[in-house]
Amino acid sequence: MPPDVVYDYSKCTGNGQCVQVCPVQILELTADKRWCKAIDGYVDNKEAAEAFHSQVEGKKDAVPIKIHNSMSACLGCAACVAACPEGAINILPEFPEGQSAVEQVK
Ligand code: SF4
Ligand code: SF4
Description:
single chain; Alpha-Beta Plaits
């Protein structure tokens, strides 16, 4: 199973540092530059990822969420985790292939 790539949008400031260090270039900023995200084409369940991003993109008062993504291209190297000054990205060991999920930040 691929790693579980988790973005916490209650912490992410959109500074882009994780995007710059990813050795396989599978991260980008959202169009409104507020958060980082997986590039949709690299998420195993592309439709789910796009639906989740539509919950926050361009919405100033978006409810804070965590987005979990299954990404087969992710090396699990955690370079993005080390680069993030906000502790907003995490790589967990396993996530079922082809799935994505949203978790409300408490
Ligand atoms: S763990 Fe490594 S390969 Fe995966 S998204 Fe982060 S920097 Fe990229
Ligand atoms: S490095 Fe952290 S704060 Fe900056 S865009 Fe990535 S997850 Fe967000």
